[in-house]
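ugh ok fine here u go
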Amino acid sequence: YFPNISKPRESGGNGKNLFFKNDFEYLLNEKFTVNLLAQATNERAEGYKSGIQNPERWAGSAAALLKFSSKKLFLEAGLKKELVEKTEAPFLYSAGGNFKIVPSFNIKFKASKNFRYPAFNDLYWQPGGNPELLPETSYQAELTPEFSWKFFKISVTPYYYKIEHMIRWLPASGGIWKPVNTDEVRSYGLEAVLGFNKSFSKHQILGNIGYAYTKSENAETGFQLSYVPLHKAFGMLQYRFQPFEIFVQGMFNGQTFTTTVCYSNSVICHLKTTDAK
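structure:
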């Protein structure tokens, strides 16, 4: 990256990524499938008058998925092993599915253990990079009932996340942003969406409205995370008449906080999720 490519180089850097990926799928029979995945990545960076010391990193993963599919039921379960140079990576697992109870009603579910190691920008971006960052591990679960009727479809998704060593970019001294680890974060809530899609002749009208409630808090302090609104509403309306279309969309974000520090005798103490309004 160079701020102005037409001027003599004063600072900046180069990045090079090399990817190897393999995806093998084998049909055991009409209902069962095995999927084997492997990937390797080599990342290299070169800084120019930026203090970056030409880092390089190898990372990879291997995964196995077992899938079951029938007219009414789809299930998938998987195991995955991450391999990251100079980083201890755990075994991961996942499970999910879609159960169509009747043609107009089905239920989706998903649960998994996830892993994310710091990107080069997190570690080495100047100014602000933090080479002491720890990788992030999370657990998630969500359930989505979906109901459709004529031109309408409604879904409601409650979810829960538990994140250890969450990587977050926050304002730091000197007017810069810096990535830090938050030891443990709990995030839970729900998202509801009502959509519709109606076609007649060459015309089509479609749209959706939705609402999301997100409680995302530092498990140690109980405060809502900064820049994460408790309430969000959104909507979209679109009209198509080939080859033309016109749409309008909007979003409302509720109150957000810009810090998670609580000072005595200060309104900032209302950051605590139990007191937030």
